[in-house]
Specification:
Structural class: mainly alpha
Largest sheet: none
Strand content: under 5%
Shape: elongated
Number of strands: 0
Number of helices: 5
Distance between the termini: 11 Å
Helix content: over 70%
Length: 137
């Protein structure tokens, strides 16, 4: 895993956490409309997922493989297919809720957060507790 690919994965995980916490905060304070910053962050996080996927495909094409050992194949599922499904699901849920669209974005971000965190972990091949050492090398 190259440094850029690894760090971009960490940025994406952090962005999903921000979206999720933002949605929870908005719901707790009773906000009705979805703020522009939350929609913008969701949009840019989706763009970063595309960049990450393309970067991963380039790494795969040049022969670089995930370093997760026998379960490295999970990296490819967690890092590509599943987050897009979660993001699309969150968008669809947001479309169904006109007044509280951010709730759907928050649920999608929650699922995508877990999946992208697992993708980073399986790509590093380290336990979750040692993930920071993988990200900092």
């Amino acid at each position: 895993m190259t440094t850029f690919h690894r760090l971009l994965g960490a940025v994406i995980v952090a962005a999903f956490v921000t979206i999720m916490l933002g949605a929870v905060t908005l719901r707790l304070i009773g906000r009705i409309g979805t703020p522009t910053w939350l929609r913008g962050l969701q949009h840019w996080t989706e763009n970063l997922l595309v960049v990450q996927l393309l970067g991963g495909l380039v790494l795969l094409a040049i022969g670089r493989r995930a370093g997760g050992g026998p379960v490295a194949w999970l990296h490819y599922l967690y890092g590509s297919l599943f987050p897009f499904i979660a993001v699309v699901g969150g968008r669809l849920a947001a479309l169904r809720r006109e007044r509280f669209a951010y709730v759907g974005l928050g649920w999608g971000a929650l699922v995508a957060f877990g999946l992208t965190l697992r993708a980073v972990q399986s790509g590093c091949g380290t336990p979750l507790a040692e993930l920071s050492t993988c990200l900092l090398r």
